[in-house]
Amino acid sequence: MTDLVLESERLVLRKIGENDIELHDTVLNTPAVMAHLGGVMEWHEIEARHAKGMAMFARDGFSFLFAHEKSTGDMVAYCGIKWVENPLAPNVGDHEIGWVVREDRWRRGYAYEAMRAVIDWAFGPIGAPHVVALTCESNTGSWKLMEKLGMIRRKELDFIDPGMPEADNPTIQYSLRKEQWENR
């Protein structure tokens, strides 16, 4: 696989390329997957997200990646690291980890497996002192995974985003320090 960045037991994680917009739109841009992320995106929004991610990888050496099953080659997740950039967040500039998994692969442990590799990447080659993850209280699966990864709820980092539906506010954050990860 070209542009391989990370590997885990069942997954390979690769850089996103210019020709991946249709794959993202078809596999991940569904009402169920995007329910807590502002809803289904328009094609131009996916295109802009990919362009921004590719530029970030070129500039900073990290961004979001596509995770593929080794056994099938199927793309199963979009996950990685970016900067907290929402100007309403009290911690703009922190390393933010995140993930979405295609609906037909939910509850198979792919997000946990991929994020363990991403966190190792963050605290290893990237050199992040800590990472955060953002979600909403109604996204139980997301914050339960954060807790499973050893992340700690940080209520002082919560913020209201008027661009998100009321059900997805406030945005809540969890964090994990490098020392916590290494001593787990």
UniProtKB/TrEMBL annotation:
<dbReference type="InterPro" id="IPR000182">
    <property type="entry name" value="GNAT_dom"/>
</dbReference>
<dbReference type="Pfam" id="PF13302">
    <property type="entry name" value="Acetyltransf_3"/>
</dbReference>
<dbReference type="InterPro" id="IPR051531">
    <property type="entry name" value="N-acetyltransferase"/>
</dbReference>
<feature type="domain" description="N-acetyltransferase">
    <location>
        <begin position="11"/>
        <end position="179"/>
    </location>
</feature>
<protein>
    <submittedName>
        <fullName>GNAT family N-acetyltransferase</fullName>
    </submittedName>
</protein>
